[in-house]
Write a structure and sequence with these properties.
The protein is mainly α and 182 residues long. The longest helix has 30 residues. Helix 4 packs antiparallel against helix 5, helix 5 runs antiparallel to helix 6 and helix 6 packs antiparallel against helix 7. It has 8 helices and no strands. Helix content is 66%, strand content 0%.
């Protein structure tokens, strides 16, 4: 891979939509579906441990909906990041698998929401089929997250170049350097 190809994957296709150089929006947005879906699984499991599980079942259902909406927003920005990666590279292939897994997980959760919505008013605990679908979806989400980490931390996709990163480790020469700047 040439230096130009590597630098291409670090630059946003559209800074106004995908985030400025060195600060992409995709990693920020993915926290919404990850948090919502993991919490919905916790609610699903907890619904089998309490006397009146309706509030957990209902909460889980709406967390799934929030996650689907968040995932669609993250996917839009993620597509822009994908377009910055040169084709026929290991980074591009990894990004395609990452994207495919995320789309499958999002579709599974959309179906899970619709399945739950049909029994919204029964007030019981989450059915075992829905619980298994959520658990499998979270597991696939974990694999996809691993691949997303590989894209950022191994291949440096949308990460500032090494010269920009070095700025954060250059000692200050001012007297203020003894104090924390955070």
């Amino acid at each position: 891979m040439t230096d130009a190809s590597r630098l291409q994957a670090k630059r946003p296709v559209s800074a106004s939509l995908a985030g400025p150089y060195g600060h992409p929006f995709h990693p920020i947005l993915v926290t919404v579906p990850i948090g919502a879906w993991v919490t919905s699984l916790v609610f699903d499991l907890a619904s089998h441990l309490v006397h009146r599980p309706g509030f957990l079942t209902q909460g889980s259902e709406w967390l799934i909906a929030v996650g689907v909406i968040g995932a669609l927003l993250a996917a839009l920005v993620g597509f822009l990041d994908l377009f910055a990666i040169p084709a026929r590279t290991p980074a591009f292939r990894t990004a395609l698998v990452h994207m495919t897994l995320n789309l499958l997980v999002t579709a599974a959760y959309a179906l899970n929401f619709l399945w739950r919505y049909s029994t919204y008013t029964d007030g019981g605990s989450v059915g075992i089929g829905r619980l298994v679908l959520s658990a499998v979806s979270v597991a696939a989400l974990g694999v996809s997250g691993f691949l997303g980490g590989k894209l950022a931390y191994r291949y440096g996709v949308r990460v500032a170049d090494e010269n920009s990163q070095a700025e954060g480790f250059t000692p200050d020469r001012s007297p203020r350097s003894a104090r924390s700047t955070v």
